[in-house]
Design goal:
Elements lengths: L3 E7 L2 H17 L4 E7 L2 H4 L5 H4 L7 H8 L5 E5 L11 E6 L7 E4 L14 E4 L2 H10 L4 E4 L4 H9 L5 E5 H6 L6 E5 L13 E6 L3 H7 L5 H16 L8 E8 L2 E9 L6 E9 L3 H14 L2 H7 L3
Parallel strand pairs: 1-2, 1-3, 6-7, 6-8
Antiparallel strand pairs: 3-10, 4-10, 5-8, 5-9, 11-12, 12-13
């Protein structure tokens, strides 16, 4: 039985909520296990004056936590699944994907009730090229500006009047008890989510079989199938922060519906595709969608992106 377990986590309020959430679940499963949280500051948390795409992408939020797993300071790391690079370093595995929270993007504004209400020239903040491309495509009259920092920092920038509105993941706002800040939810048709959005992933060393088995009860099979499919699309198309790429799966009755898009950041070109298949063939479904996106011109779009 597990006696002591250390969770590596970023120190932002949302990351700590996520780590506490996993700690509570482990406490119910293994009441005799002493579960601790090791808070860490990652490079992604400390570089706030440049967009993620320019400084190396989402892996910046994960590397230090993996180092703690490698040297034994921690046993597991809890991540937002959308922050986990599509290729894990050798020796690491995602042992569990927890039940997904709301995967949609959320519109937050103090003065306007929806994107449609924003006047021409209104400034919208987002940290994501994926959101930016879809915003620019549907609302070319708006000004989209980068917005970095943790959730509290982003909301503070909105409240100071630096933006007329911001677009964030609904899941983070809900988890931190800030759902009342959401003025409107963007449908997945209007803003297709990032691969893994709204789901939590638990990473550990691949050689720790007993630990992987102990974490298995935390895994939600439907969410895991969806996230595996989404990550496979992204991996096949070299998805990272530098690429405006969306992939979102929904599971019902053992079937997956998987949609994806690849875009130029200015929204002038978007390739979209959709596939459906058995949930137990999630990875293959992801590869099929990547091929379908290529048939819609994804490669030309990817080639046109700055490298």
């Amino acid at each position: 039985m597990l006696e002591r377990l250390v969770i590596a986590s970023r120190e932002s309020r949302l990351a700590m909520w996520q780590a506490e959430h996993v700690r509570a679940k482990l406490g119910r499963l293994y009441p005799r296990c002493q579960v601790e949280i090791l808070g860490m500051t990652t490079r992604g948390d400390s570089i706030l004056d440049v967009s993620l795409a320019k400084v190396g992408g989402k892996g910046l939020f994960v590397k230090e936590l993996e180092t703690a797993l490698e040297d034994g300071r921690a046993h597991i790391a809890v991540h937002s699944a959308k922050d986990v690079p599509m290729e894990l370093p050798p020796g690491f595995t995602l042992a569990a994907i927890l039940t997904r929270e709301d995967p949609r993007d959320a519109f937050v504004s103090n003065a306007y009730a929806s994107l449609e209400e924003l006047p021409p020239g209104a400034v919208v903040g987002t940290s994501s090229l994926r959101r930016e491309a879809q915003l620019r495509s549907r609302h070319p009259h708006l000004v989209v500006r980068p917005l970095r920092g943790n959730l509290d920092t982003r909301l503070a920038k909105l409240d100071r009047g630096e933006y007329d509105a911001i677009v964030l993941a609904a899941a983070g706002l809900k988890r931190l008890g800030a759902a009342q800040r959401i003025r409107a939810y963007l449908s997945t048709e209007d803003s297709l989510p990032a691969a893994g959005q709204g789901a939590l992933a638990i990473e550990c060393r691949a050689d720790q079989q007993a630990l992987i088995e102990a974490l298995a009860p935390l895994n939600d099979a439907e969410t895991a199938a969806c996230v595996r499919a989404e990550r496979a699309v992204s991996r096949a198309l070299a998805g990272s922060c530098q690429v405006p790429l969306a992939a979102h799966a929904e599971c019902a009755d053992g079937r997956l519906r998987l949609r994806g898009l690849v875009a130029l950041p200015d929204g002038t070109r978007i390739a979209r595709a959709e596939v459906e298949g058995a949930a137990d063939e999630a990875e293959q479904l992801g590869l099929r969608l990547a091929e379908a996106l290529r048939a819609q011109g994804a490669d030309a779009i990817l080639a046109a992106l700055p490298h």
